[in-house]
Amino acid sequence: MAKILVVEDNEDILNLVKIILEVNNHDVLTASDGHEAIKLMENKPDLVLLDIMMPGMSGWDVLDIIRSRDKWKNTPVIALTALAQKKDIETGVKKHVDGYIVKPFEKKELLNIINKVLGEHPNK
Ligand SMILES: [Mg+2]
């Protein structure tokens, strides 16, 4: 079980991800924009699922803030994106994202990547 912060501006996707994670015994925090996400980082989640395309503050903006604070910089982040474009993968590599989920995704795919990334951060 992990404490997972899910950041997604699409309410349907946010609720879907929340249900999938809760059914799998995770403790879920949800944010529908970047500002709310930064506030919820104070709860020290073990993992962040971060939508990239959001109005106002993008997921990349949120990631920059997470990586710039000592207390948060080692938190694993999985980018949630509809854009499987090469440009986004390159940006993610540069910004040290820990994984990708491309929308639309299968439940199994989501859980697999979460387990993989949590497994790579055993002290989290
Ligand atoms: Mg979005």
From TrEMBL:
<keyword id="KW-0804">Transcription</keyword>
<dbReference type="GO" id="GO:0000160">
    <property type="term" value="P:phosphorelay signal transduction system"/>
</dbReference>
<keyword id="KW-0238">DNA-binding</keyword>
<feature type="modified residue" description="4-aspartylphosphate">
    <location>
        <position position="51"/>
    </location>
</feature>
<protein>
    <submittedName>
        <fullName>Response regulator receiver protein</fullName>
    </submittedName>
</protein>
<dbReference type="Pfam" id="PF00072">
    <property type="entry name" value="Response_reg"/>
</dbReference>
<keyword id="KW-0597">Phosphoprotein</keyword>
<keyword id="KW-0902">Two-component regulatory system</keyword>
<feature type="domain" description="Response regulatory">
    <location>
        <begin position="3"/>
        <end position="118"/>
    </location>
</feature>
<keyword id="KW-0805">Transcription regulation</keyword>
<dbReference type="InterPro" id="IPR001789">
    <property type="entry name" value="Sig_transdc_resp-reg_receiver"/>
</dbReference>
<dbReference type="InterPro" id="IPR050595">
    <property type="entry name" value="Bact_response_regulator"/>
</dbReference>
<dbReference type="InterPro" id="IPR011006">
    <property type="entry name" value="CheY-like_superfamily"/>
</dbReference>
<dbReference type="GO" id="GO:0003677">
    <property type="term" value="F:DNA binding"/>
</dbReference>
